[in-house]
C-alpha cells in the first residue's frame, strides 16, 4: 500500500467529529477546487449510491464530463473517485493525496473530510463539469455539505445510524434536510408524511408521488420499465437495477437529471447503461449463482425481500454478516422470511464486524451455521442461487472471490 494511502487508512480509527469548519478550511487551503465544477449532493438512508450512479450515467450520456464520488468502496479505494465511470488511476490519487495531507494534518481533519477534499481536488484536476457527490452520514454535518450544490437529492429516510442521527425517522429526516438549499432545486423520494420536515429549508422541492408520478413494470432479471410523469413532461426508460426500489431510485435520478437540463434521450441511455456493483448484483461462480446485496439495515433488508419475491425466488441459502452497531434483529427478521438456511460470517478486514457466533441468537427459526471467513462461507453453499447480504464490507470481500480478483488488503472502518 502506498505511504499516502496508508496514512489516510490509519485516520479511519479516529472516527467522526461533527462540524464543517475543518473541511471548509481544508478546501480553502487547496484553493477551493470544488468551485471549478457544478455539484449535486445525493443523500438519504438507502439508495444513495444507485441513484448517484444512475444520475452520473445520465449526465455522461448528455456529453458532460462527470465525476462520481461514492462511499464506502467495495474492493478498491479508487472506486470512490470515478470520472465518466472510470476510477482515477492510483498514481493520480496518491499524488493528489500528497498535496492534501500536510493541510489535513495541520487541521486534524477526519478520514471522511480528507476523502471529500481529495475527491474535489481529483475532479478539478480531471476537468469535470459536474460532480455527483454521495453524502456520507446524515447530511447537515457531513463533509460533503461544505460544498454548494446546484441541486440536492434525498432518496428516502429510514432508521440507521440512530446513535448519531437520532432514534426516530423524523429526527433523521431533519438531519438529511441539511443538504437542501433555499431557492435551489431538489428532488426526493421520502414518504409523504416526512415532506413537511423538508419544506422549511425553502428548497424548490419536487417529490415522487407529488410533483412527479411513477409507474414501473418488472422485467424480471433484466430490471424494470419505468414511466415517469413530471412538470417538464413524461419519460419511459429501462433500468437494469433490480427491485422496486431500484426502479424508484432510477426514477428519482431521472427527475434530478431533468431538472439539470439533461435531454430525454440521454436520460434513457444513461438509465439503461447504469452499473452499480454489489447491490442486487447476480454473479455466476462455478455451479452457483450468487446474488450480492448490501442490505445492512431493516429497510434495506425489506427491499431485498420484496425484490426476491418480485423475481419469483423462493427460500434460498443466505450468507450474512453485519457490523456490530447495526439493528441485526430488524435485518434478521426480514432475512428469515426468505432464507432456507443462514451462514453467518464476517468481513475479515473490518474491525467493526460482529463476530458471527454472536449473531446466531437473531435467527431462532432458521437453520444456522457459522463460517469464520467469507471464503469458507462461499465454499459451503450448494449449487444454484444463494444470497450474500449485510455489511458492504462483507460484500466487498466476497465479490473479488467470486470474480477471481485479488482483494485490497485495507483495514475497513469507514
From TrEMBL:
Q: Where is the Mur ligase C-terminal domain?
A: 278-379
| Keywords per UniProt | ATP-binding, Ligase, Magnesium, Metal-binding, Nucleotide-binding
User: Does the record's keyword annotation contain Transmembrane helix?
Assistant: no
Give the main EC class: ligase
Entry-linked Pfam families: Mur_ligase_C (PF02875), Mur_ligase_M (PF08245)
Which protein are we looking at?
tetrahydrofolate synthase
Q: Which residues form the Mur ligase central domain?
A: 42-257
Amino acid at each position: 500500500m502506498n505511504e499516502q494511502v496508508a496514512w489516510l487508512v490509519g485516520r479511519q480509527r479516529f472516527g467522526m467529529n461533527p462540524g464543517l469548519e475543518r473541511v471548509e478550511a481544508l478546501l480553502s487551503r487547496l484553493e477551493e477546487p470544488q468551485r471549478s465544477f457544478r455539484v449535486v449532493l445525493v443523500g438519504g438512508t438507502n439508495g444513495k449510491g444507485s441513484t448517484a450512479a444512475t444520475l452520473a450515467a445520465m449526465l455522461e450520456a448528455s456529453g458532460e464530463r462527470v465525476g462520481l464520488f461514492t462511499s464506502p468502496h467495495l474492493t478498491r479505494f479508487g472506486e470512490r473517485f470515478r470520472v465518466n465511470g472510470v476510477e482515477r488511476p492510483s498514481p493520480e490519487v496518491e499524488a493528489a493525496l500528497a498535496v492534501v495531507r500536510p493541510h489535513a494534518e495541520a487541521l486534524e481533519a477526519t478520514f471522511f473530510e480528507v476523502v471529500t477534499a481529495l475527491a474535489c481536488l481529483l475532479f478539478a484536476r480531471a476537468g469535470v463539469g459536474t460532480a455527483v457527490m454521495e453524502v456520507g452520514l446524515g447530511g447537515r454535518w457531513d463533509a460533503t455539505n461544505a460544498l454548494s450544490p446546484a441541486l440536492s437529492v434525498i432518496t428516502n429516510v429510514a432508521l440507521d445510524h440512530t446513535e448519531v442521527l437520532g432514534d426516530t425517522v423524523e429526527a433523521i429526516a431533519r438531519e438529511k434536510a441539511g443538504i437542501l438549499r433555499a431557492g435551489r432545486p431538489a428532488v426526493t423520494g421520502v414518504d409523504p408524511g416526512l415532506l413537511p420536515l423538508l419544506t422549511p429549508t425553502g428548497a424548490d422541492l419536487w417529490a415522487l408521488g407529488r410533483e412527479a408520478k411513477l409507474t414501473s413494470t418488472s422485467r424480471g432479471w433484466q430490471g424494470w420499465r419505468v414511466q415517469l410523469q413530471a412538470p417538464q413532461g413524461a419519460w419511459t426508460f429501462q433500468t437494469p437495477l433490480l427491485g422496486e426500489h431500484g426502479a424508484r431510485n432510477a426514477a428519482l435520478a431521472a427527475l434530478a437529471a431533468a431538472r439539470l437540463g439533461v435531454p430525454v434521450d440521454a436520460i434513457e441511455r444513461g438509465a439503461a447503461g447504469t452499473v452499480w456493483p454489489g447491490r442486487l448484483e447476480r454473479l455466476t461462480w462455478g455451479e452457483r449463482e450468487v446474488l450480492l446485496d448490501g442490505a445492512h439495515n431493516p429497510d434495506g433488508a425489506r427491499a431485498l425481500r420484496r425484490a426476491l419475491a418480485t423475481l419469483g425466488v423462493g427460500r434460498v441459502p443466505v450468507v450474512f454478516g453485519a457490523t456490530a452497531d447495526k439493528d441485526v434483529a430488524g435485518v434478521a427478521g426480514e432475512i428469515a422470511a426468505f432464507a432456507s438456511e443462514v451462514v453467518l460470517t464476517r468481513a475479515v478486514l473490518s474491525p467493526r464486524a460482529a463476530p458471527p457466533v454472536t449473531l446466531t441468537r437473531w435467527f431462532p427459526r432458521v437453520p444456522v451455521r457459522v463460517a469464520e471467513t467469507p471464503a469458507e462461507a462461499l465454499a459451503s453453499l450448494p449449487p444454484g442461487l444463494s444470497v450474500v447480504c449485510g455489511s458492504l464490507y462483507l460484500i466487498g470481500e466476497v465479490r473479488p472471490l467470486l470474480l477471481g480478483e485479488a482483494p485490497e488488503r485495507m483495514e475497513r472502518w469507514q
